[in-house]
Amino acid sequence: MKNESPPRWFDSLLDKLAPPSLAEEIKGDLYEIFCDDLSTKGITRSKLNYIFNGLGFLTKSFFWKKHSSHLNNTIMLNSYFKMARRSLQAYKSNTVINILGLVIGIASALVIFSVIRYELSFDSFHSDADKIYRMVRVSGTNMTILESSECRTGVSFPVPNALREESSALTKITAVLYNGDALIEVPDKSGAITRRFQENSTALVEPSFFSIFDFKNTNFKWYEGSPKTSLEKPFSIVLTKSASAKYFPDGNAMGMTLKIDKKFDCTITGIIEDFPSNCDFPFTVLISYSSLNAANSRMMSDWYSVDDTNYTFVVPAPGLTVDEVQKDIARVHASHTPKDLHESRYYLLQPLSEMHFDPRFGTFGGRTITRQTLLALGIVALFLLLTGSINYINLATAQSTMRSKEIGLRKVMGSNRKNLMVQFLTETFLVVLMAGVFALGLSELLLFRFQSLLNIKPETFYFADPVVLMALSIIIIFVTLFAGIYPSFLISKFNPVTALKNRFTTETVGGFSLRKVLVVAQFTITQMLVIGTFVVVAQMNFFQTTEIGFVHDAIINISVPERDPVKRETMSQQLKAQPFVSDVSLSFSLPGGVNRNRSYQDIRRTDAKTRDDIKVFEFHSIDPSFLDLYKIKLLAGRNFTSLDSAPYILINKSLMNNLQLGTPEAAVGSSLHVNENKYMVIGVIDDFYSNSLKSSVDNMAMVMDPNMFRKVSIKLALQDGSSLPDAVEKIKKIWTTTYPDYIFDYQFLDENIKAFYEQEQKYAQLFQLFSFIFLLIGCLGLFGLITFVVNRKGKEIAVRKVLGASVSGLLFMFSKEYVKLILISFVLAIPVTYYVVNNWLSNFSHHIELQWWLFVSPGFIVLLIAILVVCAKSIGAANRNPVDSLKCE
Amino acid sequence: MSRVYLGELEELVLLMVALLNDEAYGVTITKELEKQANREISISAAHSVLHRLEEKGFVKSKMGGASDERGGRRKRLFKITAYGRQTLEDLQSTRNTIWSLMTKTSPS
Question: Which of A172, A450, A712, B13 has the most CB atoms in a 10 Å sphere around its CB?
């Protein structure tokens, strides 16, 4: 019989459309019917029937459903996990290297995630957070912030009240004055002082503060008192829970009286929960803002003076743009102030959400972090994950040649490509999951260890925090896919016949060039960080070793809390008499350091005409021994003597130049006006860095006004046998007998100056930490790769040795490859790093020059470490007796 | 009794599977159905029903041996499960009960 087979084209159509598991039975059944038909009906009819019946299947839903074969899925899943476990066990060293690299990467990424999350959460929890603005002050000629504008945070004292009365553009206004240090005394019932505390975060706040900042999504609450009434009356005080526990350990704080700065008696009218750590209001003692008016009413109507810690927060009326509100504020300001003030000073609005991230303006917390820094941290985290994943990819692809028999056999036994990929991804997932679990614990440890470096409170991180767990799961999935897809793709591609014959060598497996690319990428990132570390550390060294124009070692500073000249002089004499003291000086402030008083005044020549001739300078008061003690150079003229009583003044070189007084010699003897007082210049001193080296030298002038003396500088000259703690103890004793009502506090000047560079110091540490981590992960990867190569090339080494290769020659052969890759990565890293560090250095007015060795030596170090890793592993192989590798085939 | 839904055609096919015992697959089931119940259904409909029955757990299947009349292709052989048989019996007894009630109450 001819033509008795069903139409072929239809069979192949069914093959294409039908799920593989169903095609056989369907075609079988159709064929059977076809054969039946053939015996009763004609051939054409049978064929038509065949097609018709077949088409019937296309209309059935089961035909189109995804059929994951008829095997039991859970069994298969179990098998995936079992196989994964076995192969992870079989290649233990690789597994350990992979997990280690990933643990470090994931843990660091989690830490960075927590830091970023913490920083972004600052003051985001108030219910009106997106509507609150801070008023900022910009001095310039325009209502916009330009490069040249001076950006400050303070608002003149009468402004908030004037706005409340005269502007309809704002629905809520609150003024906050951060007072900082205060001496707080706890009197008993008879009024005698029982306890004294130095408090450093007091603030004056209005009741409206809590209507704007409600701390809604935190556990903030009022234990006693209420936000509306507690801060209304002058000299009311609200304590945080921890402050109240400190002052009144036995409880019962409500209604008690506290004496502030020996002047003001304040009644405690409320107890609140401590402010959360992620807010820029680090207050512990809140005093009613109305106290300010009661204590100093003149200040409250002074539109000129500004205290930069007097902030104002506002909520604009709905529907108004920021621009409209700013114009309305300018209108009110203009109606109260003369032209020269309101045309050079503008109050602008800054969204609360920007407060923590805009370094041009400060915060009460004293710390801002730019969004660029957070972004950079995020990129570092991403790189950490990538470099961990790269290790995995490299090792897995290298390993795949060892597994070619396994893969080949699996394929022969009927495993398809999808199974193999799932199998391999499961392996990856297991590795990443294990790494993730370890990383969670490690990140907690890291956060705890580096909390001060990261400016983070450890309680902000919890194992069980759903957000952290979510982040971890996302990281695990991301890393699994990133690290697993390519190797699984590669492995499943193997041709079973070639795989079984074990014909693969490292050269023929695809992906070897990719491995090179990945190693280069990894080491480029590492090189960038290491070079960055070198530059940051060099800059820090520069900060600390540069001559700043005065000596600052072995100097202790203590304060003068009272104006009484007798007490001051007696104390000074007593201190001088101590054997360990070489000199004592009294002054208004210190020559440098973070914690010091500053007072600025206007100065002009007697012939000044325009506003431009008036210069702002830092007004200082010193005694005759000040210049000697600090070894400040006198360029011309003379120092003060204790006999001087006339209005004499010393100026520094910058001020001299800015006032165009000519040479130092010429400047001596000229007259200057400070406000309305006339002074005669008796000497010119050399510039010294009262600010950090990040900024330039200020104009400075010094008078000898004992009334302004606030600080004592003690130059120590410790002989053998006298210890520093003893010296401090003796100084404390002298001080407390002079001022028994105050709390002794002292500071070393060099530490005070070091504090200028705290942020840079942190950067330096972070850089060191991150380059170490990257180097570690990179070297782990190298170690794994070289282990693999050494194992594979055992025979090659043996043959080479037999033919006369030396050990050093073999080592050279092994390292050659990696030296090349690392050199390439070095070349790639240079331009990017050069651009970035150059940018960073230009932030400082005094910085190091970028020199070639700052780039070459880190590159050399990385190279050296890499060669060491490679050699350490390959030296064993190179030394092995060739017979051992060659004897078995 | 759990709510098992067994359609009319499903019930018939299930009965056929039970009836054919070891020889139940697409073609034999359609043939048997035509013979026993005079119902003509397409082969694709039979497959569809068998899939549903398998999903519901009334039948189980395995691939049987190849034979020449199928061009060397294997067939999927279905077998009723204990659960399937139980369901059929339950249905039967429910019907019997209802019928017996009908003869009692309605005057014929």
Answer: B13
Nearest residue of A to residue B44, measured between CA atoms: A57
Tell me which residues of chain A have a C-beta less than 8 Å from any C-beta of chain B. 24-33, 35-36, 53-54, 56-57, 59-63, 70
A32, A38, A53, A65: best mutation site toward chain B, by most B Cβ within 10 Å? Answer: A32
Pair A364, A275: CB distance under 8 Å: no
Give SS3 for A359. coil
Rounded to a whole number of angstroms, the distance between the first and last alpha carbons of chain B is: 32
Which residue, among A741, A716, A742, has the nearest Cα to A730 in the 3D structure? A716
Q: How distant is the alpha carbon of residue A507 from its chain centre?
A: 44
Q: Where along chain B do its domains lie?
A: 8-105
Indicate the fold that domain B8-105 takes in CATH: Arc Repressor Mutant, subunit A (1.10.10)
- Amino acid at residue number B29: I
Instruction: With 0.80 as the threshold, say if the pTM is over it.
Output: no
Q: Are B94 and B3 in contact (CB under 8 A)?
A: no
Q: Residue A538 — φ and ψ, nearest 5°?
A: -60, -40
Nearest residue, CB atoms, B47 vs list A33, A60, A70: A60
- In whole angstroms, give the CA distance from residue A773 to residue A101: 9
Question: At A651, is the secondary structure helix, strand, or coil?
Answer: strand
Alpha carbon of A21: minimum distance to chain B alpha carbons (Å):
10
- Our measurement of the distance from residue A368's CA atom to the centroid of its chain's CA atoms, rounded to an integer in Å, reads 10
Contact predicate B22/B79, CB 8 Å: yes
Which one of A53, A59, A70 has the shortest CB-CB distance to B43? Answer: A53
Query: Which residues on A lie below 8 Å from B45 (Cβ)?
Result: 56, 60
**pLDDT tens figures, A699-750:** 889 999 888 888 999 998 877 777 888 889 999 999 999 988 888 889 899 8
In this complex, is the C-beta atom of B35 within 8 Å of any C-beta atom belonging to chain A?
Answer: no
B47 to A62: CB separation less than 8 angstroms, yes or no? yes
For residue A504, what pLDDT is reported? 53
Count of Cβ atoms closer than 10 Å to residue A80 Cβ? 19
List residues bridging with A174 in a β-sheet. Answer: A313
Q: Is B52 on the interface with A (CB under 8 A)?
A: yes
CB contact under 8 A, A25 and B51: no
**Distance between A14 CA and the closest CA of chain B, angstroms:** 13
Question: What six digits make up the tokens of A833?
Answer: 């790093």
For B49, which residue in chain A has the nearest alpha carbon? A62
pLDDT one-digit tens code per residue, A463-498: 778 888 899 999 999 999 998 888 888 888 777 777
A128 token code pair: 């009106």
- What's the pLDDT at A512? 54
CA distance readout (Å), A845 to A321, A328, A765, A840, A841: 38, 38, 22, 11, 8
Cβ <8 Å between B73 and A61: no
Q: Residue A56 and residue B42: Cβ atoms within 8 Å?
A: yes
Concatenating the DSSP letter of every residue in A298-334 gives TGGG-SS---TTEEEEEEEPTT--HHHHHHHHHHHHH
